[in-house]
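Support request, please re-run this one:
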Amino acid sequence: MRTVTNIQDLRAIAQRKVPRAIFHYADRGSYDEATLKANKAELAAIPLRQRVMIDVSNRSLATTMVGEPVSMPLAIAPTGLTGLFHGDGEIHGCRAAHAAGIPFTLSTMSICSIEDVAGAVSKPFWFQLYVMRDRGFSASLVERAKAAKCSALVLTLDLQIQGQRHMDIKNGLSVPPKLTLANAIDIATKPVWAAKVLMGKRHSFGNLAERVPGGDSLTTLSQWIAGQFDPSLSWKDVEWIRSIWPGKLILKGILDVEDARIAAATGCDAVVVSNHGGRQLDGARASISALPKVVEAIGDRTEILFDGGVTSGQDIMKALAFGAKGCLMGKAFLWSLAAGGQAGVAKAIDIMRKELDVSMALTGTRDVKDIDRSVLG
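Re-run finished. Output below.
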C-alpha cells in the first residue's frame, strides 16, 4: 500500500481498486446529496480550542461503549454488501476491529453470514437488524445472533422505505445489488478485486440466502427483499424486539428529539444519532447538528452514540464534545477495506487513533472521558 496519511488517501485507493458501482454504493448518498455533504461540512466547520503549557505526557483513549471496554471511542458501523468490497470483507473487518480493541457491527445485509463471522473470530461482535415484513424471519435472525453470542443488537429504525440513490440506479446497482452487463468492462479492469471476491466464502447475502428458494441468486433475493422493507413499522416493533432479545439493545437512526424521548422510554441501552450516512431522507439535518439536542433530551437516561461523516480522529473528538460516548464509522470502513483488506481497516483505525490522540494533546486533554465542550473554540 502506498504512503497513507489520512482516510481520504484510503478513499482514493479504494476508488481505483473496486468497480465504480461498488465504490459509489459506499461513497454517495440519496437524491441531491445535501445531507451527505452537510454531514462532512458541518463537522469540518466546528473549531477546536488550542491550549498550551498543560502537561499531557500521559494520555488515555480507553473508555467504554454500551458497557464494553474499548481502546478508543469508535466502532465499525453496520454496512451492507461489505463482502463485495473485499472477499470475506466482514471477517476481515471484524478481525481488524477486534485486534484494535473496538466493536464491529455485522449488517443484516452482509455477504458473510452471522455464522461465517462467528466461526472466524474469537470475540463477540454486534449484529444489526432490519425488522422486515416477515416477522418470523426477523425473529430467526435474533435467535441466530443469540446463538453467535453477539454482545449487542443494533436495531435500525430509519429504513422502512428506502431513499433513492441516483448513482446506484445509474450504475446499474440496486439495493440489494444486481450488476448489469454495462458494468462488465469496468469489472474486467479490476481483476485483483474480482479474484478476491470470487475466492470469498459467499457471493450473495449470507444471512438471507437460505430463507429464499433459489436464494443463491441475487435476482431472486432482490425480488424477495424488495417486498420486505415495511412501512408499517412502529414503536411496538421495538417493544417486540426488546422482548425477544435479552442483551444490549442499540437503536440506530435517531435525529428528532421527540423520537429520542420515545426511544429512551423503550429501555434501550443506547441510541445512535444518525441520518443513515445521508442515504435516506435528503434534506434532513446533519447528524452533528442533531446531536446536542438529543443529548440534552435523553443523555441522562441512555447512552448516545454518533454516526454521520466520521472520517477522522478530530470528528470523533467533536462528537464527544457534544455529548456522544462513542462514534461509528461506515464509509471510512468500506473505503479502507476496499483499499487494503484487513490491513487497510487496521490502518484506518490507527489513523483515527493517532488523530484523536494528537488533538487531545493540543487541546490540553489527558483522558478521552474528559472531552466536553471546553475543547471547542
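The CA atoms of residues 42 and 288 lie 7 Å apart. The chain has a mean pLDDT of 92.
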